[in-house]
Amino acid sequence: MALDDNIIQRWRNTELLLLGGSAGSFKPIYQCVKLFPKNLNKTVIIIIHRKKNFFSEIEKLFADNSRMLMREVTDKDVLNKNTIYIAPANYHTLIEKDKSFSLDVSEAVWYSKPSIDVTFESASEIYKNRCTAVLFSGANADGAEGLLKLRKNGSLTIAQDPDDAEMKEMPQAAINKNAAEYILNTKDIFELFQK
Amino acid sequence: MHDTAETITAPQVTEVIDLVKQIYGFDFGSYTKASLKRRMTRIMQLKKLQFYDLKHTLVNDNGFFQQFLEEITVNVTEMFRDPTFYSSFNKQVIPYLASYQHAKIWCAGCSSGEEAYSLAILLQQAGLRKKSFIYGTDINTECLKEARKGIYSLRKIKSYAENYQLAGLEGSITDHFTILYDAASIHSELKQNTLFSVHNLVSDNVFNEFQLITCRNVFIYFEIALQERILDLFYKSLAPLGFLCLGAKETIRSDNFRKKFKVINQKENIYQKIGS
């Protein structure tokens, strides 16, 4: 599918980019991180499901290969432009009205902490229609409800094409809820992010 | 699927905060709003209440307020949460505590006691059990009852077992419990030198002097101004060179308090009181 003017224009007007995914999402999200220029002029938040106590090299790998600043969220950090924030494992990541983060250790959602739904919903309340959100590959339905809230609030919502995803269930759940305004393969998503 | 009729708006959250303060004296005004909003929405969905019903029930049903309090104060906790914290604690804090004839420890926001008992296990393994005393405090009386019992489901203990191993501690977590069917009861000697009581970090004051204060994953629910009030309370409650441990993703932001607490371990957020 070719990128239309609507999607390009709304991507350009985006203040906050949200990238969510679970199993099979690391590779495409890593690709995104690598291609962002130093001054993307947006704030980026990445929510990837991972196990607590699993000291993955994700942050380090991202930071080493990103031109943007990279930071694992610490409580009350202010959301800055040209910075990529990673939601820490074993916390939910929320956004306050003054555009700072607050963390939460409450129950897992969809067996997941961080939950994509929690951050998407919170972002939607604060940023209204000024977000772009992409839901990538994953093996459960986390993120679909949050993506729907974002769409209802006028943000640009994208699901990775299930046929292009390593695990179809997560983007498919979003499509089933009619939460995704666009269904794109990774090639188109990367192209959009360079517009 | 969420019903949009059962969510709460930001001004409505403020309305409930004011109501609770007036009737019950609990002040949630400096709690972070995103989390409060989420918790209140959750109660409304669980109890199938509209906003009006929520207010009405809060005003008229004292029993409901207890449930409300339990829901909005997040009580999710683990034993040995963040295992690397506990291994650092063993290396950097235990030797300091060992240098005292008697060490007093305050576990602030202790919920159902998992963290207090994690510390009790470390102290026992270091041979300091009889030389130390742990005060666990929380605003939630139901949680404090659980803490005093020290009985946890076997399912929970199993989930803490991995933390225990990763913290590099001797033996296994079950060595410290008596297992009864599907529950695990902490050994009574670990309960001996503990006291669990009500203390509200928002409104209560200094009640003792401590060699160590732990307050992990509590600040995340507080706005920065309230965090500073509590840092002041902790500073006043600590003996000279006493230690303060915050949660892994929490930090001291105020310049004033950065000068008063020396960083002992940046990653694990272990601080030591300096000055007087």
Features:
heterodimer; A: 195 residues; alpha/beta; Rossmann fold; 7-stranded parallel β-sheet; 7 helices; 9 strands; B: 276 residues; 2 domains; 7-stranded mixed β-sheet; globular
Tell me the structural class of chain A: alpha/beta
Name given to the CATH architecture of the largest domain in chain B:
3-Layer(aba) Sandwich
The biggest beta sheet of chain B reads: 7 strands, mixed
What integer value in Å does the Rg of chain A equal?
A: 15 Å
Structural class label of chain B:
alpha/beta
Unreliable stretches of chain B: 1-5
Q: Could you say what the CATH topology of the largest domain in chain B is called?
A: Rossmann fold
**pLDDT average of chain A, as an integer?**
95
How does the overall form of chain B come out from the CA principal axes? globular
Enumerate how many helices of chain B there are, as a single number. 12
What does this protein structure show overall?
- The complex is a heterodimer of chains A (195) and B (276).
- In chain A, α4 runs parallel beside α5 (144-152) and α5 crosses α6 (169-176).
- In chain A, strands 3-4-2-1-7-8-9 form a seven-stranded parallel β-sheet, sandwiched between helices.
- By secondary structure, chain A is of the alpha/beta class.
- Chain A has seven helices and nine strands.
- Chain A has a single domain, classed as Rossmann fold.
- Chain B has helices at residues 10-24, 33-46, 51-60, 62-72, 83-92, 94-98, 114-125, 141-149, 154-166, 188-192, 224-237, 255-260; strands at residues 103-108, 132-138, 151-153, 177-180, 183-186, 194-198, 210-215, 238-246, 261-265, 270-273.
- Chain B is α/β, with parallel strands linked by helices.
- Mean pLDDT of chain B is 94; it is low at 1-5.
- Chain B folds into two domains: 4-72, no CATH class; 83-273, 3-Layer(aba) Sandwich (Rossmann fold), CATH 3.40.50.150.
- In chain B, 45% of the residues lie in helices and 19% in strands.
- The longest helix of chain B has 15 residues, at 10-24.
- Classes of the chains: A alpha/beta (195), B alpha/beta (276).
- The A-B interface holds A 53, 72-76, 88, 90-91, 94-97, 102-107, 118, 122, 125, 145 and B 1-2, 10, 32-35, 37-39, 74, 76-77, 81-83, 162-163, 166, 217, 219-221, 224, 247-251, 253.
